């Protein structure tokens, strides 16, 4: 029988959906979260240890007390803009803390580790869709911190699966789970909040070399991401080896398409204001998800279709409330 899974950052957006997927798969789970951006109620009864991943003694004690033999690591800082303002914070929170965490879990006998990485490791792509062996030239301290954390983990000697998400989106409203970042920086919730509250949405650049002039991103449903973590863990447990996998649909949606979907789903206008391009924003970020299909048996489901993602995010926000 497999041991418990330590979910670091399990009270956050993606982590809470992964906890739900693990519990549904019959896994024993213990969450370690400092609640800096997470929400206790997102755990729906899963045991929570409140503390930081860079508290080595706490990590080691928690692993031993719960019989942990695998780790899913979601904990960290996630804002590109914040990372530009304070790169040292991202070095500490995303790179150094990952080093402390992996050393502590290894001392407690853990050998399997699944890491939340990001498409931000690639920077401005030379070609799309982006395969995993594409050169890495991150354009923000956030992306650089994810690439360096991957390197720290690769040197750890553990079996590591680095899952490079493209744009996590959607929610699981039936479980009361969804996206609640503060401040919110992600397009879909911002478009929905614009529709609900009338706060105009900023569109950063309308002169990109894309069909409608706005940036293209690959939105993948958070429930599909959560399922990929279970599959990655199963791969490591089967002794099939670690690696890096892109998680996306393989298709891009433009900012205008997202705004149109938010209008359709809510039945309300989405007020927008034009804003200048943001430095470091690639025009197009779309995953080549073929390796994940081949190695993990993972594909984005129908829930990752744009209108379905937006509808779930809207239901989580409480619809027209
Ligand atoms: N949301 C996305 O679109 C996206 C895309 C690519 C990669 N990622 C990565 O996925 C991970 C999760 O993202 P999210 O959107 O769920 O973020 P989130 O902020 O909702 O969740 C992060 C969780 O980690 C916790 N945490 C932060 N620092 C901690 C620490 N030192 N010790 C213990 N807990 C700590 C927070 O309290 C929170 O519960 C991040 O590593 C992020 O870089 C997210």
Sheet with most strands: strand arrangement: 3-2-1-4-5-6-11
CATH superfamily of the largest domain: NAD(P)-binding Rossmann-like Domain
Largest sheet: 7 strands, parallel
How many β-strand stretches? Answer: 14
What's the domain count?
Answer: 2
Quote the beta fraction: 15-25%
CATH architecture of the largest domain: 3-Layer(aba) Sandwich
- CATH topology group of the largest domain: Rossmann fold
Query: What is the helix content?
Result: 25-40%
Description:
This protein is an alpha/beta fold and 321 residues long. The chain folds into 2 domains: 4-169 and 219-247, NAD(P)-binding Rossmann-like Domain (Rossmann fold); 173-217 and 250-316, UDP-galactose 4-epimerase, domain 1. 38% of the residues lie in helices and 18% in strands. The chain contains 10 helices and 14 strands. It has helices at residues 13-24, 56-66, 80-85, 87-107, 141-154, 187-197, 222-237, 255-266, 290-296, 306-316; strands at residues 4-8, 29-33, 48-50, 68-73, 112-118, 159-165, 167-169, 201-204, 216-217, 219-221, 243-247, 253-254, 272-275, 284-285. A 7-stranded parallel beta sheet has the order 3-2-1-4-5-6-11, with helices on both faces. A 3-stranded mixed beta sheet has the order 12-9-14. Strand 5, helix 5 (141-154) and strand 6 form a beta-alpha-beta unit. The longest helix is centred in the N-terminal third of the chain and has 21 residues, at 87-107. The radius of gyration is 19 Å and the shape is globular. The mean pLDDT is 96.
